[in-house]
Amino acid sequence: MSYQMSDLLQLVVSEGSSDLHLRVGIPPVIRVNGVLARVDGPVLRPEDTEELMRSMTSEDHIQHVREKGGADFGFAFGDAARFRVSVFKEKGNFGMVLRQIPSKLLTMDQIGLPASVRELLYKPRGLVLVTGPTGSGKTTTLASMINIMNEQRDDAHIITIEDPIEYYHKHKKAVVTQREVHIDVPSFAEALRRALRQDPDVILVGELRDLETMEAAITAAETGHLVFGTLHTTGAAKTIDRITNAFPTNQQEQIRIQLSTVLQAVISQLLLPRADKPGRVAIFEIMVNTPAIGALIRDNKTFRINSDIQTGAKYGMMTLDSCLMDKYQQGMISQEEVITKAQDPAGILVKLQELENARVAKAAA
């Protein structure tokens, strides 16, 4: 029996799975709510993975896999779903991972973002960073933000630069231009430079992956554009350090000064399995740039940013740890997740102990 790609994709859609893995030596594997599950059926042979790969991969991309060892592209499965596809060689055989791109964009409330983040979508200029590990939902959060601006801002030309394009945005009140790296333009940095001549109001950079792209994004934010970008960091302080440290030592002070003025906010997120029902829940840290935080960035005192986030609730800020505790108290996530994901595990253990003591005291009363 051989597998058909259309049947496997249909399974992914009907199971609400996030990923499909195809490797020689095991049956196809799908990821549902963060857990891997094998499909009932025979193990894949080298000719099976090659056949499945060829059924959806262009000759250009196959050539790219042969020369560079891998290729990434977007793929539409009829009207049912879009996938981000990664094809690669491993142990001489073809392997594939397909990530399902949710077709329904969420509202801010559905994602769980506070009102302070909504205000960022109407800023005339500045840099907004959405950060977190791979698979933490950054793309979904950004696509939802773009969608809100698209629906509500008739003063916005939105340019997205992505590799590959994941969500397709139709023109609503705004005009949306979506450019794919390697297809429409050679690189992120090049696309950013060209974007500035295309009358943009909002620019989304899929990934700030190198010095050149970071530099271009900061310049775009300085020259009166609202720029959104992503980084694989967790927490505001680490994100700012990551950008600063990407530059040569003699430029770092200048970059800190620029960041202290152009940065509007850093939104860090994680996706954790729910304890109360199937599914996952987003955990956020939100830093909004205030004059006090701007001064810390400028003076290279990022290690003190966390205490400003803790006291910045009136600006809509929250720490990752307080968000974890909040979701734990609502019964959404397990205690183990709180402890392993906390940025200050010792502080979290003290808070959990206090909760337990209060519970015991209440029970005794």
Notes on the structure:
This protein is of the alpha/beta class and 365 residues long. 41% of the residues lie in helices and 24% in strands. It is built from 15 helices and 13 strands. The strands form 2 sheets. Strands 9-8-10-11-7-12-13 form a 7-stranded mixed sheet, sandwiched between helices. Strand 1 (19-22) and strand 2 form a beta hairpin. The longest helix is centred in the last third of the chain and has 20 residues, at 345-364. The termini are far apart.
List the helices and strands and how they pair.
Blueprint: H1 5-15, E1 19-22, E2 29-32, E3 35-38, H2 46-54, H3 59-68, E4 70-77, E5 81-90, E6 93-101, H4 108-111, H5 115-120, E7 126-131, H6 138-152, E8 157-162, E9 175-180, H7 188-195, E10 202-205, H8 211-222, E11 226-231, H9 236-245, H10 249-262, E12 263-273, E13 280-288, H11 291-298, H12 305-310, H13 320-329, H14 335-341, H15 345-364
Parallel strand pairs: 7-11, 7-12, 8-9, 8-10, 10-11
Antiparallel strand pairs: 1-2, 1-6, 2-3, 4-5, 5-6, 12-13
Helix pairs in contact: 7-8, 9-10, 10-11, 13-14, 14-15
Approximately how much beta-strand content do the residues carry? Answer: 15-25%
Query: Describe the biggest sheet?
Result: 7 strands, mixed
Helix content: 40-55%
- Poorly predicted runs are none
Shape: globular
Task: Summarize the model shown.
Helix content is 41%, strand content 24%. The chain is an alpha/beta fold and 365 residues long. The strands form 2 sheets. Strands 9-8-10-11-7-12-13 form a 7-stranded mixed β-sheet, with helices on both faces.
